[in-house]
Each structure stands twice: as structure tokens, then as C-alpha cells.
Specification:
By secondary structure, this protein is mainly beta. Helices cover 4% and strands 33% of the residues. The protein is built from one helix and 18 strands. The protein has one helix at 113-121; strands spanning 29-34, 44-45, 54-56, 61-64, 71-73, 81-87, 92-99, 102-103, 107-108, 131-135, 141-145, 158-164, 170-177, 193-195, 199-201, 207-213, 216-218, 240-242. The strands form five sheets. The protein has a five-stranded antiparallel β-sheet, with no helix packed on it. A four-stranded antiparallel β-sheet has the order 10-11-6-13. Strands 7, 8, 9 and 12 form a four-stranded antiparallel β-sheet that branches. Strand 7 and strand 8 (102-103) form a beta hairpin.
Length: 244
């Protein structure tokens, strides 16, 4: 009898790209989620006519609401959001942005958000993912900080303008959301663990059972929502190893 070797590979982390090891999943806990606290697109996808159930994404960081004992999205520290607004109606010229001692290359007065983001990411002290720029060509541009600046009180940038045309053209800078401590105080500001699997639920449901992962190895960059393990407040679950 001719016996040939047979090798099979089973991917146990299918649907969980953030999971780096299956070690620890045997300690998952059964919890109840407060579905009213989760947001469409960020946390779950809308049902379709072929699939009536909504589906929560796996890997959502969770916290426990003290008053109800139910679990909700972890109320992480807030991210800094700043706006740059061109005033005075310039018709030409350029400007630069200086942040933490470094200055971008010259940008056109009507630069796109993508061009502003690219210029900022070209600075040696801003890595891709540290800031996301949105807005129309010519502004206003919204700078949302994340990555290594997630949850940080980020210093506001400054600008230098060489505009032409218009009436006293300038750029005004405002902080619309200050980065720093979590604003929640209901218990969800304390990190408890991650939603281990995708969870389907009826659009009419307000609660559902779910598995909470409380121990393991995680790649934060692959989670469905921004999460910085270096900014966890006192009392949070620390039984995770975070790797890239």
C-alpha cells in the first residue's frame, strides 16, 4: 500500500485579521451587548433584503456600563481634530504648514485634502496614519489625528502664507476637538476586551449575547476601530500582547 503524506492548513482566524494567536480564546467570556450604543458603519453593517440581520464587526474594543452591566463600545480617549480655513478669497499663491518644528513643502492655495495629507506625511515626525485630512480643494481642511497621536493633546500647526489676490488672505486654525482623556464616565471608558466574533442581530433588538475576548495577541492596526493600547486608563484589561 502506497501511503502519501497529506498536509492540511486551517485558518482559525478567518474574519479576524486583528487576531495574531489563538492562545487565550479558551478564556472568552459570555456577555450581553447594549446594541443601542453601537453605530452603523463604524461598528455594524446594515441589513439587506436578502439578509435581514445586522452584523457587528469582530474586534470591536468593549467596556462595561456600570449601571446596567451591559457592554458597549470602549469610550477611548478622544482624538484631536483641527481645521484650517482659508480666508480672504485668494486667487493664487502658496502656503506651508509647520508642525512640531518641521515645515511642509509649498502647497497651492487651492490644494486638495489629499495633497495636504501627503505634504504632512512627508515630514519625518508624522507617519502615515498619524493624521487624516478631509475637506474640499481650497479648504476648509479637517485634520484628524490618530496613529501615534491617537488620544494625544496634539499641538496646533502653524501656517505661512504667500497668497495673491483676494482681500487680506490668510489661514485660520481652530481646534474643534481636543485630544486627551475620555469623556465617558459610565464605565465604558475602561477597556474590558474585544468582541471575538462577528455577531448578527435583528434590527429591532436592543441587546444580544456575545463572546468577549479577555486574553490574547492583537494587531491594533487591523482592528475595525482606532485603538491605542498605550493610552488605556487605569483599571483597564491589560492581559493582551500587542504586535504589528
Amino acid at each position: 500500500m502506497d501511503i502519501q503524506p497529506y498536509t492540511s492548513t486551517e485558518t482559525l482566524a478567518v474574519g479576524r485579521p486583528w487576531l495574531m494567536s489563538m492562545l487565550g480564546i479558551e478564556t472568552n467570556e459570555s456577555i450581553t451587548l447594549d446594541l443601542t450604543q453601537f453605530d452603523e458603519n463604524l461598528h455594524w453593517m446594515e441589513a439587506s433584503k436578502y439578509q435581514p440581520d445586522r452584523k457587528l464587526k469582530s474586534g470591536i474594543p468593549l467596556g462595561k456600563v456600570t449601571a446596567t452591566g451591559l457592554y458597549a463600545p470602549y469610550a477611548a480617549v478622544t482624538n484631536e481634530v483641527q481645521t484650517l480655513t482659508v480666508t480672504g478669497g485668494p486667487t493664487g499663491g502658496t502656503f506651508t504648514i509647520t508642525w512640531s518644528g518641521q515645515t511642509t513643502s509649498a502647497l497651492a492655495y487651492n490644494a486638495t485634502a489629499a495633497q495636504v495629507q501627503t505634504a504632512l506625511e512627508a515630514l519625518s515626525n508624522i507617519a502615515p496614519g498619524d493624521v487624516t485630512v478631509t475637506g474640499n480643494a481650497g479648504g476648509p481642511w479637517t485634520l484628524t489625528w490618530g496613529g501615534t497621536q491617537l488620544g494625544e493633546d496634539v499641538a496646533a500647526p502653524t501656517t505661512t502664507e504667500s497668497f495673491t489676490g483676494g482681500t487680506s488672505p490668510d489661514i485660520t486654525i481652530a481646534t474643534t476637538t481636543a485630544g486627551g482623556a475620555a469623556t465617558a464616565s459610565d464605565g465604558s471608558q475602561i477597556f474590558a476586551g474585544f468582541l471575538f466574533t462577528e455577531v448578527a442581530f435583528s434590527p429591532t433588538s436592543t441587546k444580544c449575547a456575545a463572546p468577549l475576548m479577555v486574553h490574547g495577541q492583537i494587531n491594533p492596526a487591523k482592528l475595525p476601530v482606532a485603538f491605542d493600547p498605550t493610552d488605556l486608563p487605569a483599571g483597564s484589561n491589560t492581559h493582551f500582547v500587542y504586535k504589528a
